[in-house]
Amino acid sequence: MYGGIKCVPYMLSCVSPHLFELLKNLFCPVHDTTMEGLHNLQPYPVLRMKCSMSRDTDISHERIALDGDFLSYAPNEDDRVGVYIAAHPLTPDMCYYEAEIIDTGTDGSISVGLCSKRCPLDAHIGCATESIGFMTECGRLYKEGSRGTQLCIRCDCGDRIGCGIKFDQVLEGRGDPFCTMVPVYFARNGKELVTELVSLPSGGLYPAVGMDSVGGEVKLFLGLNWVPEEDSLMSVDTNEEEWYRLSDIQLNGQVLEYTGRGKSIKDVGLAQARSPLNTTVHYFEIEIVDPGESCYIAIGLTRRDYPKHRHPGWSKGSIGYHADDGKIFIGSGVGDPFGPRCHKGDRMGCGILFPRDYVCQYDSDGGSGEVSSSPTGMDNLLELTLDTSDSEDEDWWNSQCGIEHSSKMKVFFTRNGKMVGARQVCIPKGGFFPTIGMLSMQEKVRVDLRPLTG
């Protein structure tokens, strides 16, 4: 009987230290050395699990530097794999995410996928239990340490790897009521690569990224709703009313595709929005879906009657940032060094910083209207150069006086959400219209004319 009583404190110590202390006081006949030994016992594993579950709302990471949505490899002295695990698992309401490769680093070793919170923080996603991951350096899929299945070629800067769960196709365990199988799918640049059934671990599957390539960097896009690229390209009747003219460019939903010959600079394709930027809608973006043969893609602002076969920035009354060489063009065919070149997957943005006292009176179609402003604090910025050139609209410029010189604004450009630079320019009468130019075969961009308005 006494031996049975000695077992009771041990069992209770595995469940609750507080009950154990109470029992120690009640059962004083138990030898002190025995009680000291019980004090040194490790807690029951369930207690450790409760502690780790309480931290599930936190991001887990080792050897990964965080800068907002950007993740970069931060090796220590042993150069082990760095791993990031998101704060929340995928759910039916947030069932998909993407990681865009900003820099592949020295060898491109980046893994993207899903794992449980119990996965080690020093192994690539897919190389440990309760994980599945896609390796960008070789285009292979790994599941819980498997040898890997080839899905595609090596990924490069600008590629976006997506991963999600098809919760509408969840399978309850066959023969095991505690096992749930979920279809996990991977996509590359909007095209689905594979769907794989995976056992759903306790606590769920979390977005995760692994890296061991010096200089490697990705940007995370969590909580997305994935729409296959094919579905996007089929929605041809959704956004046509937003465009004033499309010259040698075909519209498919939000995607613009170059359809010109692409043989000389006279073959530029131009897409110009119907309405100019204003104090409500002052910024727009494009994403390079396909750079085509040469990535002759430009984003910028132009006057209403801009020549239809000129890149934004090449002619008077325009400014443009060009993806192929990173130069900025301001009313001239000669550009200046400005920012980095842009590639597949990069997002290029353009906007106007309107002063607080700026009054915009454009009509709904972007027609001419009076504007007034008294901008301050911009004297040190570059102004729009109105030098002579052989552009095809020279006669228009000299005869129409198409600039309202009383209105100067700061036009800025971004790349992947980061500021590239800005220039101060004169606003043409009637306003500045969002414009995209393209010049090489198979070029495609996805446009968002209102990314900041929800």
UniProtKB/TrEMBL annotation:
It holds the Pfam family SPRY. It comes from the Eukaryota. Residues 33-227 form the B30.2/SPRY domain. CDD domains: SPRYD3 (cd12908). This is SPRY domain-containing protein 3. It comes from Zootermopsis nevadensis.
